[in-house]
């Protein structure tokens, strides 16, 4: 691999997998600490002894215990230490125990509701500790020691404190003192292993903010590892990379460090996340605008893409924030990478995101400097939104067609609907669908509000909270109303399927009168058994969302507007003190909720995958990319502050040469100019994918953009592969 020595590559790609389940003396020296089992036993034993103390202090003490005792390595084959002997030990011990206590003993009624929604495919809900972004500007400005000192100044400025506030500041003190002590451990280990560049950088970072590009990379990496793999809170952005890292990059060049050396450092940084191999990939973003609206794209932005491209990796995943001032040459460079098979780049619209945040009450600067995180979500700096709430838009249609009963289980869902043949018009059915949908929304809000007030009790966040100015000012945990904004997000899935299904009912039942609604419901109950001709007719119908067709697009638009009114602005848990917002994102629910969802009127059988994000159903985009863009941008992505992503497929033949690149650029800019939020692109043809199924060993590097993250094609199951083949077959 370019930039990486062969021996170093092998070491780095294996170092994170030397865990409690695989003792590897070539990665960890046993003399440097305990193994994973002993660490977890020690956490539990220590916690029993301090069970009288508040949770923030107990968790901070557990965090410190891990950093004092975990095995470490600072091998000269690497620029970054290995501190991951045991992964997420706090989550598996005290946090798991506190979660059980809350859901089993304190709020069993809420737990029962949560189990009902999850078990019946109505919504997939779990407590969200997955979408944090520290205030990277503060982290890089103050450094590790400076963050601790800043938190102690905030404590001193608040002489009258409640017990909860005292516990909050104590947790931060213990956590960040432990981090500084851990840096000293790493420094000593680097000296023992003869890794002098790492030793010097660690010594500097113990005392000061980062001074060099390497120190900045090292600080970013250490924060990530300690938060995500020890503290137990995912870091869903490695920062606005070009904006934050550029001063360090320029300073090094001015001080005589070669560009080749800086590229090497960047490559070793990237390789850490490739080696860790998180399924969802690790996000980082580039671009955006300065205060004068000029671009944040700079020399480092191009170097970033070039190094990434030459390495041939797909993790970390890269979000590109595109604005009017973003150089076309930079956009075209990224598009060229995508058409050559690097699908781990996603484009997000700076203008759309900023308008959405300003509509939600953010200042222009808050909106401009917002983070892009996770798959393509976004939030103002210093904010912590929670959002593991995926709602199935097809379920309310089952209720409306089955007298208020679940189409799969037959059980009453709580709100009686009319007899199927009692609807005299499509509008009556649509109104009933919306009534059932509103009930689901209210139920999910009630359920999530019932447990989100306990998030900081389950998993207090001393590490993250120390980077949030408002947390320090108020003495509140980031999960307990301390962040600048504390919203909860509801994600709606399968917009294309519901729009296409309602369109099919309108045509077949109410316009053409080929079936009664009760007959249609019976056909769906039998999963189209004996009705293959009808099913193929439904699938072949041209009135499908994502093809710029009036009826399905209008239905999708009406549903989006209805949901905005149902969700946006409603209060979330009182302890968090925020409000609800929404978006259209499915993660893996296209597959996971499919078996729990009845066959749908658009011709989909039960168990077959459901549509993704705001994209057409798989294989249904028959009118080309422009039509898909026209459909999705009819939905106002500035009316809510979360995902509205288009998953676009293009044929390799359509993107060849300069004309092909021009076409890709024109499609992207059309999407952005029309108010689209996010777009990611797969470039493939059906025959290549079929060949990869037959002979996976010949296509080991074939990447597929799944739903906000990348995987290798041979790593997804056959059903998912077949879905992408259907999508490719429909491309024109």
Detailed description of the structure:
It is a single chain. This protein has 30 helices and 13 strands. By secondary structure, it is an alpha/beta fold. Helix 9 (213-231) packs antiparallel against helix 10 and helix 16 crosses helix 17 (426-452). The two termini are 36 Å apart. Residues 20-24 have low confidence and may be disordered.
SS elements, strand count: 13
- The largest sheet has its strands arranged as 2-3-4-11-10
Largest sheet: 5 strands, mixed
Shape: globular
Percent strand: 5-15%
Average pLDDT, to the nearest integer?
96
Summed up, the helix count is: 30
Radius of gyration: 26 Å
Class of secondary structure makeup: alpha/beta
End-to-end span in angstroms?
36 Å
Low-confidence stretches: 20-24
What is the helix content?
A: 40-55%
């Amino acid at each position: 691999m370019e930039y990486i020595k062969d021996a170093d590559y092998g070491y780095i790609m294996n170092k994170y997998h030397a865990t409690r389940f695989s003792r590897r003396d070539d990665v960890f020296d046993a003399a440097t600490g305990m193994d994973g089992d002993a660490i977890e036993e020690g956490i539990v034993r220590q916690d029993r002894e301090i069970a009288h103390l508040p949770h923030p202090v107990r968790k901070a003490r557990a965090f410190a215990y891990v950093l004092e005792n975990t095995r470490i390595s600072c091998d000269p084959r690497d620029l970054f230490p290995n501190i991951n002997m045991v992964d997420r030990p706090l989550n598996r011990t005290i946090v798991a125990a506190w979660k059980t206590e809350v859901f089993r003993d304190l709020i069993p009624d809420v737990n029962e509701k949560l189990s009902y929604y999850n078990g019946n495919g109505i919504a997939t809900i779990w407590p969200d500790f997955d979408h944090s972004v520290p205030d990277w500007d503060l982290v890089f400005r103050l450094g590790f020691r400076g963050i601790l000192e800043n938190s102690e100044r905030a404590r001193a400025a608040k002489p009258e404190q409640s017990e909860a506030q005292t516990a909050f500041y104590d947790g931060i003190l213990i956590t960040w003192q432990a981090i500084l002590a851990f840096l000293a451990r790493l420094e000593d280990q680097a000296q023992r292993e003869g890794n002098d560049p790492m030793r010097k950088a660690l010594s500097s970072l113990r005392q000061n903010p980062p001074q060099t590009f390497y120190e900045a990379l090292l600080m970013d990496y250490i924060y990530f590892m300690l938060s995500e793999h020890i503290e137990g809170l995912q870091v869903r952005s490695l920062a606005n990379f070009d904006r934050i890292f550029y001063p360090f990059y320029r300073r090094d060049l001015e001080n005589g460090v070669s560009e080749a050396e800086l590229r090497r450092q960047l490559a070793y940084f990237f390789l850490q996340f490739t080696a860790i191999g998180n399924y969802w990939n690790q996000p980082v973003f580039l671009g955006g605008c300065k205060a004068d609206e000029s671009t944040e794209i700079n020399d480092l932005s191009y170097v970033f893409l070039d190094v990434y491209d030459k390495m041939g990796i797909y993790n970390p995943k890269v979000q590109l924030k595109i604005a009017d001032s973003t150089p076309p040459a930079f956009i075209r460079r990224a598009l060229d990478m995508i058409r050559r098979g690097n699908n781990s780049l996603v484009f997000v619209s700076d203008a759309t995101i900023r308008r959405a945040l300003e509509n939600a009450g953010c200042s222009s600067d808050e909106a401009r400097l917002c983070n892009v995180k996770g798959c393509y979500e976004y939030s103002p700096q210093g904010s912590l939104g929670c959002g593991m709430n995926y709602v199935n838009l097809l379920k309310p249609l089952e209720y409306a067609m089955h007298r208020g009963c679940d189409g799969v289980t037959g059980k009453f869902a709580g709100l009686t609907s009319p007899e199927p043949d009692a609807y005299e018009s499509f509008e009556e059915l649509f109104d009933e669908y919306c009534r059932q949908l509103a009930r689901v929304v209210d139920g999910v809000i009630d359920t999530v509000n019932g447990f989100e007030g306990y998030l900081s009790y389950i998993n207090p966040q001393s590490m993250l909270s120390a980077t949030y100015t408002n947390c320090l000012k108020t003495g509140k945990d980031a999960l307990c109303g301390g962040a600048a904004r504390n919203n909860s997000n509801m994600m709606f899935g399968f917009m294309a399927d519901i729009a296409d299904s309602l369109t099919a009912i309108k045509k077949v039942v109410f316009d053409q009168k080929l079936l009664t609604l009760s007959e249609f419901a019976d056909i769906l109950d039998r999963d189209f058994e004996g009705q293959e001709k009808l099913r193929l007719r439904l699938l072949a119908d041209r009135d499908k969302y994502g093809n710029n067709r009036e009826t399905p697009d209008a239905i999708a638009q009406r549903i989006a507007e209805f949901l905005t009114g149902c969700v946006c602005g409603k209060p979330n848990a009182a302890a968090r003190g925020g409000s609800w917002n929404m978006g259209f994102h499915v993660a893996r629910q296209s597959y996971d909720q499919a078996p729990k969802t009845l066959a749908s009127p658009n011709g989909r059988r039960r168990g077959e995958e459901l549509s993704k994000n705001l994209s057409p159903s798989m294989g249904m985009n028959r009118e080309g990319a422009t039509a898909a863009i026209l459909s999705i941008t009819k939905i106002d992505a500035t009316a809510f502050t979360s995902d509205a992503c288009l998953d676009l497929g293009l044929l390799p033949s359509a993107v060849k040469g300069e004309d092909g690149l021009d076409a890709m650029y024109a499609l992207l800019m059309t999407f952005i100019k029309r108010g689209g939020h996010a777009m990611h692109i797969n470039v493939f043809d059906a025959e290549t994918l079929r060949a990869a199924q037959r002979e996976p060993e010949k296509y080991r590097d074939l990447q597929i953009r799944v739903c906000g993250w990348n995987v290798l094609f041979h790593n997804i199951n056959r059903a998912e592969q077949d879905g992408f083949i259907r999508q490719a077959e429909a491309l024109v």
